[in-house]
Amino acid sequence: MEKISIFWFRRDLRFIDNTGLYYALSERNPVLPIFIFDRNILDKLPKADARVEFIQRTLEQLNKPLKDKNSGIKTFYTTPIEAFKELSKTYTLEAVYTNRDYEPYALERDREIENFLKEQGVSFFTFKDHVIYEKEEIVSGSGSFYKVFTPYSKSWKEKYKANPPETKPSALYFDNWVPLKEEKVHSLEAMGFRHTDITIPSNTVDEEIIKHYSEKRDIPALDATSRLGIHLRFGTISIRQLAEKALNLNETFLNELIWRDFYAMILANNPRVIDQAFKPEYDRIPWRQDEEGFEKWCQGKTGYPIVDAGMRQLNQTGYMHNRVRMIVASFLTKHLLIDWRWGETYFAEKLLDFDLASNNGGWQWAAGTGTDAQPYFRVFNPQSQTEKFDPQLEYIKKWVPEYGTDAYPAPIVDHKLARQRAIDTYKQALAN
């Protein structure tokens, strides 16, 4: 049998500027692209999950141009190790190419696959693709990773401007694909999933939105953010191409992409942050086990309109405006003194653009437990945040139509008392 190479699609669902795919096709062997619907992940998800549907639909779209090349994406619904056992029996493999993922599960998975392939005499090549700079590429003068964003971003920009990363041509320019007969992507139904009514935003980069991002990004009633999060999460757009546009259009938007790299770097250097505070002393905080309060927060029934609007937007659309994300996270961790991990887990289930590093970083920032976090004594006032960012109540009225009527609940906590309780609790815990 002719030797082939595998390209393993993961968080890089595109042909344009796909680093690992480009290098796979640049070698002499024909390339078989695969995607594994990983049961280690999927079995834990609700059966109506818009992200799974998005992946499945994207793979079907990617499959179409490959049909013209008499090829296709071979999909699996199993665990990665079982998929590679099957591949090694079916084909004579020389090498497997893929792009790196920095989450703890992904690292463990890749070690298992690399060891298995090594036993078979198959090479395993990984490439940087999901971020601009990896965990040890931006370091301080002392050689350690940055723990504060501003100096990190300064070093990031200096490195970027001195040597911008190259983009790779489309993989569709190549013709060395493994022939496949009418390969079909696993259907949602075959995997036990159902269709959802959640709309996925476009992956078109709106340059006008990016140009005006600085002055409009904090107003939740406006459609003034890129909504590209899910596409960055699953790699349906190139981070390098987006960063290049941002550099030329708006530095504030570029900073958001740098935050993404920053949090990915923090996770890669400190995998313990997935279930522990970045600042270990903050794990001494005695969080309240308030399941009733948490449920009201989840449902958007706290009696704080800006908080409730945000949670209802999330529950109905899989999206929440970034300014409101900060407000609702502060409310949960400060007003209700509920563990940030509860909120992080809820967001992980609901957000279309859920990314472990960014979600963890954002929640620890809000709770004061993370790197470069807001200080514990800073407690967002939902009322003043409303007056500043939703003064006409357009956002609130859209998502909380009963606001201002008897049907709307009274606040579940008093702001002034809750704020003082949070400050006192944090102060006491950190003094021990």
From TrEMBL:
Task: Extract the coiled-coil ranges from the record.
Answer: none
Entry-linked Gene3D superfamilies: 1.25.40.80, DNA Cyclobutane Dipyrimidine Photolyase, subunit A, domain 3 (1.10.579.10), HUPs (3.40.50.620)
Keyword GTP-binding applies: no
- Domain Photolyase/cryptochrome alpha/beta positions: 3-132
* Keyword Flavoprotein appears in the UniProt entry: yes
InterPro entries reported in the protein's UniProt record: Crypto/Photolyase_FAD-like_sf, Crypto/Photolyase_N_sf, Cryptochr/Photolyase_FAD-bd, Cryptochrome/DNA_photolyase_1, DNA_photolyase_1_CS_C, DNA_photolyase_N, Rossmann-like_a/b/a_fold
Protein origin, superkingdom: Bacteria
UniProtKB keywords: Chromophore, FAD, Flavoprotein
Pfam families associated with the record: DNA_photolyase, FAD_binding_7
Give the protein's cofactors. FAD; (6R)-5,10-methylene-5,6,7,8-tetrahydrofolate
User: What family is it from?
Assistant: Belongs to the DNA photolyase family.
- Designated name of the protein: Deoxyribodipyrimidine photo-lyase
Organism of origin: Roseivirga thermotolerans
Source organism phylogeny: Bacteria, Pseudomonadati, Bacteroidota, Cytophagia, Cytophagales
Gene assigned in the entry: phrB1
